[in-house]
Amino acid sequence: MRSVIVTGGSRGLGLGIAKRLAASGYGVIAIARSETAELRAAATAAEQAGRGALHFRAFDLGETHRLAVLAAGLHKEFGPLYGLVNNAGIGTSGVLAIMPDEHIERLVQINLMSPMLLTKFVVRRMMSERAGRIVNISSIVASTGYHGLSAYSATKAALIGLTRSLAREVGPLGITVNAVAPGFADTEMTSELGEGERDKIMRRSALRRLVTSDDVAGAVEFLMSDAAKSITGTTLTVDAGNTA
What we know:
- By secondary structure, the protein is α/β, with parallel strands linked by helices.
- 46% of the residues lie in helices and 17% in strands.
- The chain has eight helices and seven strands, in the order βαβαβαβαβααβααβ.
- α2 links the parallel β2 and β3.
- α1 (12-23) packs parallel to α2 (37-49) and α1 (12-23) crosses α8.
- The longest helix is centred in the middle third of the chain and has 29 residues, at 101-129.
């Protein structure tokens, strides 16, 4: 069974991705600060299905100095790590001119430094196996921009730059690196948007709806699969036609 790490796997997009990959036969390791009832239920369902598996390991991804230990521990416990989905992120909004410095620093730490360093330690082990899949969860605002999301957009754009360059670094070893750029998804992260704002986003989308967690999970599942073995360094947009 191929082991895949999914960060931020206890809720929202991360939980949707973890459930989808477990149902497809992967051994998923969901990383988050705390376990949720939804994640426990998903783990039980995966066990009963008898195909894949869903495990939870508690870790605060803000503790970047401990990421090397995390990667080593997971490799020791689960064996070769085939996949890494860098999904965890915070969506702190605010106009840059008045955004507190500590909020900007936290965004960069969680949304960029943490996935970059975790990838560094995990990809080393993939290189020795000469196989692996890395998927970074970016966002359409990395290219379109959005009012009040300057700092957030910057971190998501940086993930796309990381994706493209790392794909060239590790491609000769059989490792693919791709990104998925969701549009505004119907999750807790967008729940703070007012109903009028959500309606505006849906009207602007070609499909007249928000993206679901399962939409994004399907894209990740594809990029993890053998069907995507010749796809690397690319960004797959899943936005219900918002940027069409």
